[in-house]
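Notebook, bench 3.
Goal today: get a predicted structure for Protein kinase domain-containing protein from Hohenbuehelia grisea so we can plan the truncation constructs. The sequence was checked against the plasmid map this morning, with no discrepancies at the termini. Length recorded as 187 residues. Pasting the sequence as submitted so the record is complete.
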Amino acid sequence: MYIDPYHPFYPSRKLDLTGDARYHSRTRKPVKYYILDFGLSRKYEASSLPALEAPIFGGDKSVPEFQVSLEPCDPFPTDVYYLGNLIRRSLTEGWAFAHPVFGLDFIKPLIADMVQDDPSKRPTMEQVAERFDESCAGLSSWTLRSRVARKYDPAIAIPFVFLAHWGRRIMSISRRRPAIPSLSDAV
């Protein structure tokens, strides 16, 4: 996304701090995100499923099945919980380091299903992907191009952010860029 290398402490500035770092929007230059497990992964043969594993404690200690007992459990619903809780805490509800954002109400029912206390009631990761695609397909181009904003954006910045967003929006529409870029174009 960045044309110029950016400074690690000031991502909006160039690496040498001589000016603003230039970048492209995620719509113009799609990005493919990967959620990593930082060495906590396990590999399973398809013939040995469903797998039962003792709890593997990573960064998120809020997994409901780990609160009740430390008995072996199926790790796949736990992964669904981890992803749902990450999205819930960093985007839809917020927490100490990330305020919630406007514009993601369409995903809240899916997230609620992903973080259910009963692991057997959580959707599989395939169902999550399918439901997310269905949710996005049901949104209008107008909604998909709407700005997603943190709830704490300072009032002084709102006019500038608003104008910049509308400028990008008009350019995307005039250049006939799709509201959801293709993952085949991802960097």
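The mean pLDDT is 82. The chain has two domains: 1-31+153-187, 51-151.
Flagging this for group meeting.
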